Please model this.
Amino acid sequence: MVALTRPLGGLALVALAALVLSLALGSVSLSPGEILAVLRGQGGPLAQTLILELRLPRSLSAFAVGGLLAVAGALMQVLLRNPLADPYVLGLSGGASVGALAAMLAGVGGLVVTGGAFAGALLSTLLVFGLAHGRGGWTPARLLLTGVVVAAGWGAVITLMLAVTPADRLPGMLYWLMGDLAYARAPWPPLALLLAVCLLVVPLGRSLNVLARGPLQAAALGVSVRRLEWGIYLGASALTAMAVTSAGSIGFVGLVVPHMLRLLLGNDQRLILPACALAGGSLLLLADTLARTVIAPEQLPVGVITALLGVPTFLYLLYRSQ
Model:
């Protein structure tokens, strides 16, 4: 137990430091003392507005979205037993993006966008599983290839939707597709979902560890393989849909974070999944802080920052694995 809690404690401290940094930096910098005074209910009106109404909701949303994407990527890598799998490669993000963009194109918002994103992710799940299922059932390689094809199809649909979108809505939709946390003001639903998934890891940790070694071995040890696989895919769909709804399309978090943590911490899913929640949240929190400050008062899409950070990091990990 100590071996599990010690890395998580270190990652929790990193997440706390990233949160303080995100609250302090911006077009107007604040000292740690000013931040602490506002959290105590004191401080000036400008500091209270900056922290309580602008930076804190956005920072919590960034942490939640990063954790959701990293956990979803870790679950997909367990399901496919492939370190290159993530929700974007398998078409979940594309389906969720199509559902959310369709709701935006119809002129609705709020829960309808969330529902559309989840419906798109679920439809992508059914398509991938249905098309990949052959006479002998689906295999990880077949599922991965099918996911790549479905993801390409969703990309074509997104391009078509952007082509027919009215000019006044097009900039917002394009910015959202690049990953945008500027309008993320409801962090509690994604945070609650992230916490619920991490709490479920404890009873399912043994089953996930066995499944990572192969379906035959898992079935021999009494694991209901098909039920667990469907649960993993549906859970990853829900996580991806919530993340896409909150922040748009953000890549590389679900791919790089689980891969890097497995190199550092091993393959125990009871440790990896909570660690992904903390590390993914911290990474996106730092990326969003950089997106807000690098050309302040203007802002960059956070998806651009994660791509610029993720590509060289992943290439370095591939080089080290040789």
Observations:
- The CA atoms of residues 197 and 235 lie 8 Å apart.
- The chain has one domain: 83-321.
- DSSP finds 13 helices and no strands in the chain.
